[in-house]
Design a protein that fits this description.
The complex is a heterodimer of chains A (590) and B (239). With 590 residues, chain A is an all-alpha fold. Chain A has a single domain (38-249, 262-586), classed as Cytochrome c oxidase-like, subunit I domain (Cytochrome C Oxidase, Chain A), CATH 1.20.210. Helices cover 61% and strands 1% of the residues of chain A. Chain A has helices at 26-31, 36-66, 76-112, 120-139, 170-198, 211-242, 266-299, 307-320, 336-348, 350-364, 373-396, 398-404, 408-438, 444-470, 488-521, 580-586, and strands at residues 253-254, 257-258. Chain B has 2 domains: 1-34, no CATH class; 41-238, Cytochrome c oxidase, subunit III, four-helix bundle (Four Helix Bundle (Hemerythrin (Met), subunit A)). Chain B is 68% helix and 3% strand. In chain B, helix 2 (37-66) packs antiparallel against helix 6 and helix 4 runs antiparallel to helix 8 (213-238). The termini of chain B are far apart. Classes of the chains: A mainly alpha (590), B mainly alpha (239). At the A-B interface, helix 5, helix 6 and helix 7 of A face helix 2 and helix 6 of B. Chain B: It is a multi-pass membrane protein.
């Protein structure tokens, strides 16, 4: 890395000094907290809670598919509601909130050497508005008619018409909850972006930032630009439902009667939804890319291969993801010529993505690999992501996609690529940063059991679904009717998948137990148990107190990946360790 | 902020051209030198809000182009009859004039704020708020008139139902922006008037010291709302 000359010592930063809000009661310290680290934990716990609800919903779905008719309370309507809530909760309220609100809040200030986010008060509001959105969403379970069963894509016209479960209240609460979520996210997103752009420590250039920060930063920018489309779509559908407008509603006949709607365009909603929906995939994936790069580098004791290319790949993927949205709409009835354009842009994304995969593998090459739990999850991510990415090549091509549309193949693809893969990273990241957050390590034995059940179990669940999809088994059907269309093996596979899903789900509760148990009984960790070079591990105290750094904000002299540097005393050099010349010149010790 | 010299940037060693821009943007601490957090935030927020309004306008244009029923003629719908003469778009012209004028008084307020002229700043901000309130008032008048003529979100007497839907949604969303702007103008004007920024009084909610920059941030938001109106005017009323 080229050395960028720094000013004279004294080491006070040129950026504004944060006016920290100092809490003076239990409520301002832990409930209405303005400290990004507390907000991060609040976000993470709520998101994990929503994740557990969504997990139970998926269990119920699998029980119905594996043993149709046995569980009588899961009728077709109930099944649609389970699908819808599972999808929306996982994508928006778990993954987005956990990566940006959770990891973003905890890691950005620590990794860029800031005392806090730039607007702590707005940051606090962000969490509470998110919490409100979650409450509204969960309230729909108790509303008359239950939650909406429109599918997580909420396609009109069916989403708001009679015949779709939850069309009385569920869809209204869903749309309101999304609008509230977007308002809350915007407050947080502005914080993440401005902190990275304008609030870094002395010496922390953009090209010295850990890739985790790059991933979260790019994802936040994308979210600020993609969520508006969902916001507008939700507002317009809410008007269609409540005011009787016809933005998305064509002329319709139901039971021989013409409905009051007419002249709207259902395709318009699909465009708005996917203009949000596709970037959303990468809003979830880019933080995962960033985090996994750091996990691999730390636990393989090697600098990340091709750092500069990794950064550009993140940016390129982020930019490209805004021009691929209609590849979700090949069978929607849009102009067929669009398909050519969107298939091309979709396949181009494979290039930066492949660069990232090759660089991860090359980082491992001749590395000093420590197979601790975080590393296992990181390696599992690479495999799973490649796997899901390859089926993406099938679905990205129009002619191959058309027969596979709305089959279990699609379910298998997106669960692999944006369900399992990011969740594996989340687990890895929790095992990795838990000692920084709590001062104790998560239990390694429980962690390894959790890893192997989750990793192998995920393949047991989703691999057979590719096969089911190729046989033409449709998704969103609450049972395969007793017909000769599908061979007996399809039914048996469904039973197998269900059993695997029950086991994998149960293993997650073991993880929750590990989180709680290790908080009190875990092995105590020092400030830097993995020997990592990035800044968050160099805090004077662990867990870091309010204000993070004590009296002096750190000064950064190098990138975050100085591992096994020849001639260095240790096998890593912290980012804030000055080069010998600076030490000699200033008589300064870090 | 602005008066701290950035000594550690050595201009002579910086590469030229595009590489120089990249090196400058990615150099340490701040991507945009001497841009405060508040200003960076408002610019990024406005970028996000631009996407919201763009989506609204594009959705409206899609609806207008794809509907099979004729679209009402805006210059007839939005005409006022004064003394037996029908003047197309008269009210909208006045509203546009008022809002653009308010951008002028806002810009002057920003200038006076940086000169620490509290009285003039506060007065100019009040005038801006007044013009903004007048705009919202005229919008309320326009809504009332149309509602009396039978325009509803779900129907209207002249053609495509989406006319009323898009009209109420887009002007309503913009009017909400103006209303919030007026409220915040009043709040900031009060702070300027009381000298809160000179005394570095702590904010009621944020408990952070305010700065005269708040006037400029307010101004950026106000100019944005104004700019959005120009697009609404062009795409909704003139098309």
């Amino acid at each position: 890395m080229t050395e960028i000359p720094l000013g004279p010592g004294g080491m006070s930063a040129d950026v504004e000094d944060v006016e920290l809000y100092h809490p003076h009661s239990w409520i301002t310290k832990y409930v209405f907290a303005q400290d990004a680290k507390v907000i991060a934990i609040q976000y993470s716990l709520v998101a994990l809670g929503v994740g557990l609800i969504a997990l139970v919903l998926s269990w119920l779905m699998r029980l119905q598919l594996g043993f149709p008719g046995v569980f009588e309370f899961i009728d077709a309507d109930r099944y649609y509601q389970l699908i819808t809530m599972h999808g929306m909760m996982m994508v928006v309220y778990v993954l987005t909130a956990l990566f940006l609100g959770g990891f973003g809040n905890y890691l950005i200030p620590l990794m860029v050497g800031a005392r806090d986010m730039v607007f702590p008060y707005v940051n606090m509001l962000s969490f509470w508005v998110y919490f409100l959105a979650v409450l509204i969403l969960v309230a729909s379970f108790f509303a008359p008619g239950g939650p909406t069963g429109a599918g997580w894509t909420l396609y009109p016209p069916q989403a708001i018409l009679a015949g779709t479960p939850g069309q009385e209240w569920g869809i209204v609460l869903m749309l309101v909850s999304l609008i509230v979520f977007i308002i809350g996210f915007t407050m947080g997103g502005l914080n993440y972006v401005v902190t990275v752009l304008q609030g870094r420590a002395r010496g922390m250039t953009l090209m010295r930032m850990p890739l985790t920060v790059w991933g979260i930063f790019t994802a936040s920018v994308m979210a600020l630009l993609a969520f508006p489309a969902l916001f507008v779509g939700a507002v317009m559908m809410l008007f269609d439902k409540l005011l009787g407008t016809s933005f998305f509603m064509p002329t319709l006949y139901s039971m021989g009667e013409q409905l009051k709607y007419g002249g709207g365009s259902p395709l318009l909603f699909q465009h708005l939804f996917w203009f949000f929906g596709h970037p959303e995939v990468y809003i979830v994936a880019l933080p995962a890319f960033g985090i996994v790069s750091d996990l691999i580098s730390v636990h393989a004791r090697r600098n990340i291969f091709g750092y500069r290319m990794m950064v550009w790949a993140i940016i390129a993927i982020g930019a490209l993801s805004f021009v691929v949205w209609a590849h979700h709409m090949y069978v929607s009835g849009m102009n067929p010529y669009f398909g050519f354009f969107f298939a091309t842009t979709t396949l181009i994304i494979a290039i930066p993505t492949a660069i990232k995969v090759y660089n991860w593998v090359l980082t491992l090459w001749r590395g000093d690999i420590h197979l601790r739990t975080p590393m296992l999850f990181a390696l599992a991510f690479i495999v799973t992501f490649v796997n899901g990415g390859l089926t993406g090549l099938f679905l990205g091509n129009v002619v191959v996609d058309v027969p596979l549309s709305d089959t279990m193949f699609v379910v298998a693809h997106f669960h692999m690529v944006m369900g399992v893969a990011p969740i594996l990273v989340i687990f890895g990241a929790i095992y990795h940063w838990y000692p920084k957050v709590t001062g104790r390590l998560l239990d390694e034995t429980l962690g390894k059991i959790h890893f192997w059940i989750t990793f192998l179990g995920a393949y047991a669940i989703f691999f057979p679904m590719h096969y089911l999809g190729l046989m033409g088994v449709p998704r969103r059907y609450h049972e395969m009717l007793e017909s000769t269309t599908y061979p007996a093996s399809a039914h048996q596979l469904n039973i197998f998948i269900t059993i695997a899903a029950l086991i994998v789900g149960a293993a997650q509760f073991m993880f929750v137990f590990n989180l709680a148990w290790s908080l009190f009984r875990g092995r105590e960790a020092d400030g830097n148990p993995w020997g990592a070079a990035s800044l968050e591990w160099q805090t004077p105290e662990t867990p870091p107190p309010h204000g993070n750094w004590g009296p002096h904000v750190p000064v950064v002299y190098r990138w975050a990946y100085d591992y096994n540097v020849p001639g260095a005393a240790r096998d890593f050099i912290p980012q804030n360790e000055p080069p010998p010349a600076v030490v000699a010149m200033q008589g300064h010790s870090p | 902020m602005a008066d701290i010299p950035l000594t550690h940037i050595q201009t002579e060693t910086m590469p030229a051209g595009l590489k120089g821009i990249a090196a400058d943007l990615s150099s340490d601490q701040q991507a945009f030198k001497n841009v405060s957090w508040g200003k960076a935030m408002i610019w990024i927020f406005l970028l996000s809000d631009t996407f919201v309004f763009s989506c609204f306008l594009i959705a409206y244009m899609t609806a207008r182009m794809s509907t099979s029923v004729p679209w009402p003629n805006p210059s007839e719908v939005f005409a006022l009859e004064i003394g037996g003469v029908t003047l197309p778009l008269l009210l909208i012209a006045i509203m546009t004039f008022v809002l653009i004028s308010s951008s002028g008084t806002m810009a002057m307020a920003v200038n006076y704020a940086y000169r620490r002229d509290r009285r003039t700043t506060a007065i100019l901000m009040l005038v801006t708020a007044l013009l903004g309130a007048a705009f919202v008032g005229m919008q309320a008048f326009e809504w009332t008139k149309l509602i009396h003529e039978g325009v509803r979100p779900w129907e209207n007497p002249w053609g495509a139902a989406q006319f009323g839907s898009a009209f109420f949604m887009i002007t309503g969303f913009h009017g909400t922006h103006v209303t919030f702007g007026v409220i915040f103008l009043l709040i900031v004007a009060r702070k300027v008037w009381r000298g809160d920024f000179d005394r570095e009084a702590k904010g009621f909610f944020t408990s952070r010291k305010g700065r005269y920059e708040a006037v400029e941030i307010m101004g950026l938001y106000w100019h944005f709302v104004d700019l959005v109106w120009v697009f609404i005017f062009a795409f909704f009323y003139l098309w």
